[in-house]
Design goal:
Blueprint: H1 2-12, E1 31-32, H2 39-56, H3 58-61, H4 94-130, H5 132-147, H6 150-161, H7 165-191, H8 195-202, H9 207-243, H10 255-261, H11 271-297, E2 304-305
Antiparallel strand pairs: 1-2
């Protein structure tokens, strides 16, 4: 009788209704990314915003014509005669030339990254997905490209096609597409054996659809990080080639060309070379800081569980 009574008491006890749990409450399944914004990112964003404005509307914010010489005001020191950053050897306003030089650096840097990224990512996808003969041919082409120093390639291309924006973009793209190819190829070699790729292949997805819809989105994080870091390298390469006279031809203002123009006047007119060099330094550092932040934030291991 006691067992029956105990069983009855258990059955009569109120049962709490099941609690509804949404999918977003499961910590292992739903995670949210917390973007960490530090002082370095703020400084980098501010510098890049200034460079972007200078590149987009240089004629609006430049106080003088960057190509107009004034021999009477040559080598004017900063903060004198109405020239905030002084003048160069021909009396041209240095502030205006630095502002217009930002457009050249931005156009060449972004164009070279887009061209090299497009070629490199495409070849990396094909190499990693198909393997075999395709992989071998692309790998040999990458090895050959790595054996040619970019400076030697630049001299050869400029000698054949002449200097200019298009030539410089071609040189920089030909020198850096291998980086994208190798990184994308490594990711695709792992992803092509994944279950979701095998499932898509089992339901009849074509190779083109597998690459476009399943592989490319999963390597996009690596592409974004590499492209950001390569942008800083492109700006440095452009400045180096312009310094050596292999870049955009004068009188078009370029940061590297301005550094070269003032190298003979460092003793008595330090600002002619130093201030364009500072512009290069700040821009490259800002892009590198942005690339480091993107690398850390886009790493899936840095996601935090939802509260």
């Amino acid at each position: 009788m006691s067992q029956v009574a105990a069983l009855g008491s258990r059955q009569s006890a109120p049962v709490a209704p099941p609690r509804r749990v949404g999918l977003d409450q499961y910590t292992p399944l739903a995670r949210r990314r917390r973007w960490r914004i530090g002082p370095r990112l703020v400084i980098a964003a501010a510098i890049l915003a200034v460079v972007a404005v200078c590149a987009v509307v240089p004629d609006v914010i430049a106080p003088f014509d960057p190509l107009q010489p004034d021999i009477g005001a040559r080598l004017t020191a900063p903060f004198q005669r109405g020239h905030l950053l002084g003048t160069d050897t021909l009396g041209r306003d240095l502030e205006s030339r630095i502002i217009h030089g930002a457009r050249i650096s931005a156009i060449i840097g972004v164009s070279a990254v887009l061209l090299a990224g497009t070629v490199g990512v495409l070849l990396g996808l094909l190499s990693g997905f198909y393997g075999g003969l395709v992989d071998g041919v692309i790998a040999r082409a990458a090895d050959i490209a790595l054996t040619i120093p970019y400076l030697v390639l630049a001299v050869a291309v400029v000698a054949v096609f002449g200097g200019g924006l298009v030539t410089l973009v071609m040189v920089l793209a030909l020198s850096t597409w291998v980086t994208y190819t190798r990184i994308v190829r490594g990711d695709v070699l792992v992803l092509r054996r994944s279950e979701f790729v095998e499932a898509a292949r089992a339901i009849g997805s074509s190779n083109a659809r597998l690459i476009r819809r399943h592989l490319l989105p999963n390597v996009s994080t690596s592409i974004i990080v590499v492209a950001t870091q390569q942008l800083a390298a492109m700006i440095l390469y452009e400045a180096a080639l312009s310094f050596l006279g292999l870049g955009v031809r004068p009188p078009t203002p370029t940061w590297g060309g301005m550094v070269a123009d003032g190298r003979s006047y460092l003793a008595n007119a330090w600002w002619v070379s130093t201030l364009p060099g500072v512009a290069i330094l700040l821009t490259v550092v800002a892009v590198n800081w942005l690339g480091d932040w993107l690398r850390d934030e886009l790493d899936p291991r840095n996601t935090s569980p939802q509260d």
